[in-house]
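Take our chain:
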Amino acid sequence: MKKEMKVAVMNGVGKMGFERRPVPVPKDDEALVKLEYVGICGSDLHYYEEGRIGNYIVQPPFVLGHEPGGTVVAVGKNVKNVKVGDRVALEPGKTCGHCEFCKQGKYNLCLDVVFFATPPVDGVFCEYVAHEAALCFKLPDTVSTMEGALIEPLAVGFHAAMQGGAKFGQKALVTGAGCIGLVTAMALKAMGVSEVYVSDVLPARLQKAKELGADEIVNSKEEDLQKRIAELTGGQGVDLAVDTSGSEIAVNGAIECVKKGANIVLVGYSRSGMMNLAISRALDKEVTFKTVFRYRHVYPLAIQAVAEGKINLKGIVSDVFELDDVQTAMDRSVQEKAKIVKAVVHIG
């Protein structure tokens, strides 16, 4: 076992570098995981570009990355759910377990959560991490560690589908075809939604949505979204809409596209944190708004869906970068958003 590891650190806005740090020693209830793949999330890019998200402010040197998959190389004395050699997906948020929300089972709302790559907590753009073993989920033989890294965004997609009450026979609209939009569309299909329509303004992302099973794609920059959805639903509108873009225009479009009594799930964060919405239209339709903050109790279900071939997680990956090229990975992910759908970092 190595005593030191390479760690990619954010040294300032738009600046990546490397440090050598000790390989962590797992505590009694932890597993030490040799990381193999870590996804680059939109929040990583936001921290990289802006140095903050709301009240969460980066203090360099800071480690980004919260979508990890790897192999267990050591375990603490109390660990029973995983063993050395197991390939695992890591749920990145450790909660207190005793607050009101944890006791209700809504642990994603815990007021005292420790979450990878959320300042001041370092993320996992590094070779090893010691993590609570209960948050390390064993991957079946048919699921790779790259797919294991992408269970984290897929969990968001499943939570969004569940929040919206997705079920067989429905027609749904997903606005935004980035990573979260794509996994949400796949989660909706896996949960039995009969037809899923995806809208965006970037052709490459829409094409990827089509490849991954969207029944119809709509470029809302070139087409009238409301008119197209009316055509697809015989004038009825969709039963469910999920916005993953954080765009005010997209959310207002969703309000117009749903039928009366429908659910609209808001997943994407707007850049300003504010939106002006057509509330009168929402009231007329008695729309129910639901929101999403991460996920809860979803990892086993998401892993099973991938193992059974219901979700093509590898299909969302457009680019793979080595850890040594993390500066390029971050820069290109920022500069080529119209081209790069989902990038992952291969740790080794």
User: Anything to note?
Assistant: The radius of gyration is 20 Å. Residues 151-163 form the longest helix (13 residues). DSSP finds eleven helices and 19 strands in the chain. The chain has two domains: 4-150+317-346, 155-291.
